[in-house]
Automatic annotation (TrEMBL):
It comes from Ferrimonas pelagia. Part of the Bam complex. This is Outer membrane protein assembly factor BamE. It comes from the Bacteria. The lineage of its organism: Bacteria, Pseudomonadati, Pseudomonadota, Gammaproteobacteria, Alteromonadales. Pfam families: BamE. Belongs to the BamE family.
């Protein structure tokens, strides 16, 4: 009879604790990064007049390209912290006109030299 009580008590305790968020802190949850991780150092290298190849060299391939026109590239990064479920999202849009950079918009600070085109070395 005592063993039966212990068994019932153990089953009830296991059921109560398994549905409780008290145990949640013990479970390891991974961090989930998605998209293009772009650092501020990379953004500071961008200049007006850069070609598509130069932008791809500096930032990597974009996550999205505009399907109706190839004049806008989207760099999107999302990070979900496994422990706190905090979501961080950053976006960068690079707009091209005649296959060179025209404007850059997003969650990053552009360098002061952004409006100064690169010297191509051509006369």
């Amino acid at each position: 009879m005592k063993q039966f009580r212990k068994l019932i008590l153990a089953a009830a305790l296991t059921t109560a604790v398994s549905g409780c968020s008290v145990v949640d802190w013990m479970v390891y949850k991974i961090d989930i990064p998605q998209g293009n991780f772009v650092e501020q150092v990379q953004i500071e290298k961008l200049r007006v007049g850069m070609t598509r190849e130069q932008v791809e060299f500096v930032l990597g391939r974009p996550v999205l390209r505009d399907s109706f026109g190839d004049d806008t590239w989207y760099y999107v990064y999302q990070f979900k912290n496994g422990r706190t479920n905090e979501l961080t999202r950053k976006e960068l849009l690079v707009n091209f006109v005649d296959d060179v950079v025209n404007t850059v918009e997003g969650d990053y600070e552009l360098s002061e030299a952004f409006d100064t085109p690169l010297d191509t070395g051509r006369p």
